[in-house]
Structure formats: structure tokens, C-alpha cells
Amino acid sequence: MITRPHPRARRTHLAIGVASSAALALSGVAGCSDSGKAGDEPSASVSPSATGSTEPTESPSGVDLTEPGSQLAFGDTAIVDYTIRNRSSILGLTVTAAKQGQLKDFVGFDMSDPLKKNASYFYVRVTVKNAGDKPTGGIDTPLWGISGTNTLLPPVKFTSAFKKCPTDSLPDKFAPGDTFRTCLVFLSPNKGSLEGVSYRPLASFDPIEWHGQVQKPVVKPKKKPKKKAGKG
């Protein structure tokens, strides 16, 4: 979670609900109890061990759901049956692009915590469509980052606008056919990488993944000091 105190404060506070030990291993179900409920997981937009039901929604006529385990490229769309708080939705999820951020993007935030200071940050652009026949809305985009150590990274949550990557929940009223664009921030600990993006609503779900080229940040070359003209 990212919070900002009063704007007059000299230094704002950055509280990210992510820790290296909190990421879920893709190969297992870490963080789940025998009851299927989440364990001591950080506050994130969606927890694979704590969302909804495994019972599929009856898809609208003509809508084909993307097979679990599908491997997609950036720009591809997955049609998924997403259930949360006993409310089912058919969503079209498209991961359009991913770009690595820089620590200087967070000027004004308190980045003194070693976890934050030594992390890599990634901005992922996503398009969400209501591909079903029922209205929905007011939910977070159910996607996770995949780190180079094969762990899931929950999206960073903001309590105020982050201009580099504006992160918003779906509108409260999201009618069939409506489209919504947002940007998700992922923190990869210890200067880690981002290898892809995952849709995994339950720990037992064979994830749908997107992979593609992650854009590197543009680093402007340092200006060389001008040589003083000699006396002639």
C-alpha cells in the first residue's frame, strides 16, 4: 500500500504491502491454510488463495473462455470467469505492455526502507472488458506479476494518484461491453526482474500467463561540462 500524508509534509511516506517472503511460489500454494483461506499474506488487490469460488459461471452464448494454463503474448486477450465476493463476471483481460520504472519516479515518497530502495519497479498496462452479459464493477484487476525467482508479485496499492502509472479499480458501474484501461505497479525485491503477468484467481488454478519484452527505462546521458574558451 502506498500512502501520502498531508501535502505540506517535507517527506511523504511510502508503505508498500509487499515483502520478499510474501510472494506466492508458482509451483506451490504457499500462504494457504488447510481451509483454503489466505494465511499471513500482505494487503494486495487480489490473493490467489482467497478469491471466490471454483465453480464456473455459465458463459454467455458465443463466449469461449480461455483455457487454464494458456501461455499468451503481450497484446493477447484472455476471456476469464472471475468470481469474487459471490459475484461472477466474465472479463476480457489484455496485458498490452510492460516497462521498467526507476527509483527516481518515486520522488516525494519515503524510500528509506531497504526493501523499497533495493527493489525494481515495473509498470504494466492492462485493458479490461466486461465480456459477459451482466454488469459488474468496483473490483481490482485480478493480475499478478511473475518475478525472475518464479514467485507471484501482488500489485502495489496506492491511496493517491501515481502519475507514472495511474492505478484504478474498475468503475462501480461496468456494463456489458464496457472497456477500462489501467496500469499496475509491481515491486520485484532485490533488484529482481519481471518475467511475465499471471491470472491466478485461486492457488489451485492453472494460471494463464502473458510474456513479452519489458521495456527498459530511458536513461538520459549526463551532460559533459563545457570547456572554457582559452585566452587568445
Account of the 3D structure:
The chain is mainly beta. It has one helix at residues 114-117; strands at residues 12-13, 24-25, 71-73, 77-84, 87-100, 109-110, 120-130, 144-147, 151-153, 179-188, 194-199, 208-211, 214-215. The strands form three sheets. A six-stranded mixed β-sheet has the order 2-9-8-11-12-3, with no helix packed on it. Strands 4, 5, 7, 10 and 13 form a five-stranded mixed β-sheet that branches. A hairpin with an 8-residue loop joins strand 11 and strand 12. The model is unreliable at 1-47 and 49-57 (pLDDT under 50).
Overall shape: it is elongated
Helix coverage percent of residues? under 10%
**Quaternary structure annotation:** single chain
Number of strands: 13
Instruction: Tell me what the CATH architecture is.
Output: Sandwich
How much of the sequence lies in strands comes to 25-35%
Total DSSP helices: 1
- Main beta-sheet annotation: 6 strands, mixed
The CATH topology annotation reads as Immunoglobulin-like
- The SS-based structural class is mainly beta
Q: Which blocks of ≥5 consecutive residues have pLDDT under 50?
A: 1-47, 49-57
Assigned CATH class:
Mainly Beta
Please tell me the total number of domains. Answer: 1
